Amino acid sequence: MPRTENDTWDLASSVGATATMVAAARAVATKADNPVIDDPYAEPLVRAVGVDFFTKLASGELTAADLDANDSGQSPVGMSRFADGMAARTRFFDDFFAAACAAGIRQAVILASGLDARGYRLSWPQDLTLFEIDQPEVITFKKTTLAQLGAAPTVDLKTVAIDLRGDWPAALAAAGFDASAPTAWIAEGLLGYLPPDAQDRLLDTIGELSAPGSRLAVESVPSQTVADQDELRERMKESTDQWRSHGFDLDFSELVFLGERAEVSAYLREQGWQVEATPTNDLLRRYGLEPLDSDEGFADVVYVDATR
Ligand SMILES: C[S@@+](CC[C@H](N)C(=O)[O-])C[C@H]1O[C@@H](n2cnc3c(N)ncnc32)[C@H](O)[C@@H]1O
């Protein structure tokens, strides 16, 4: 279903299902030979959501090889490369938080936390407060499921159940956020699901709430001209067509907002952030994973690490 202004979801539907999908990819990546990440909660969380395709993928009943095999050899992106991409992405944000904590930051915010289990699987300084923001059904599901699994947070974890298109700064403040303290922010797998102007507002607001010494890590998605959009929609569809025969029923092209959007690095530099930008292929190489062919699905995503 196409996006609407105030649409909502759970983890089995619409944008919420993308959180389940990336958690399934983390489960696959966790079981890889020489894994780049270790997310023991990814598989049980995906199982609990109960979408058959993702459960089979997370449990290994359906392998990346099953999904990628076709007459021509490989589907345009392929699940195996998607799992590598998600492994590198997860590790980038894990490393970002480790560096921010080592630099003395004691307040962290995960924007659009989905099934991210960093509040349960990473080791954090004792005096740090971690805030997670996502839609209410997403927040409640993860919290309840992890409690049922017997998992306890490894940090002072505060959840903020609100849409990021609404007044989330007020909700964050009500949860105890201190705008005078340096903060480490992450936006992982989020910007593409926000319209371009909402992306600008989000970055502006983060800037306003960031005391000196704050850091921000963002997965930045490319801008598309009107001419590029049809081709991109077609590529997104082709990437997942093959998975459909195994029960996959998401259409990413309906969930993301395409169009011209600000280039995050330049936007943040203008706001006084010092920015380091790492293209996907450099990130894959950093963690010992094969780079993508330059025309593969998410090769033009850039990982931004900014400091104020
Ligand atoms: C691809 S998932 C990424 C989840 C998580 N960051 C990760 O990498 O595992 C996208 C997430 O963005 C959240 N999201 C997207 N738009 C949102 C909005 N307007 N308000 C709150 N959450 C949003 C979804 O609920 C979902 O959890």
From TrEMBL:
Top-level class of the enzyme under EC nomenclature: transferase
Pfam families on file: LCM
Keyword Phosphoprotein in record: no
The protein's Enzyme Commission number: 2.1.1.-
GO biological process, one term: methylation
InterPro entries: Ppm1/Ppm2/Tcmp, SAM-dependent_MTases_sf, SAM_mthyl_Trfase_ML2640-like
Top-rank lineage group of the source organism: Bacteria
GO terms, molecular function: methyltransferase activity
Alphabetized UniProt keyword annotations: Methyltransferase, S-adenosyl-L-methionine, Transferase
Family indicated by similarity: Belongs to the UPF0677 family.
Reported function: Exhibits S-adenosyl-L-methionine-dependent methyltransferase activity.
Entry protein name: S-adenosyl-L-methionine-dependent methyltransferase
Originating species: Mycolicibacterium parafortuitum (Mycobacterium parafortuitum)
Phylogenetic lineage: Bacteria, Bacillati, Actinomycetota, Actinomycetes, Mycobacteriales
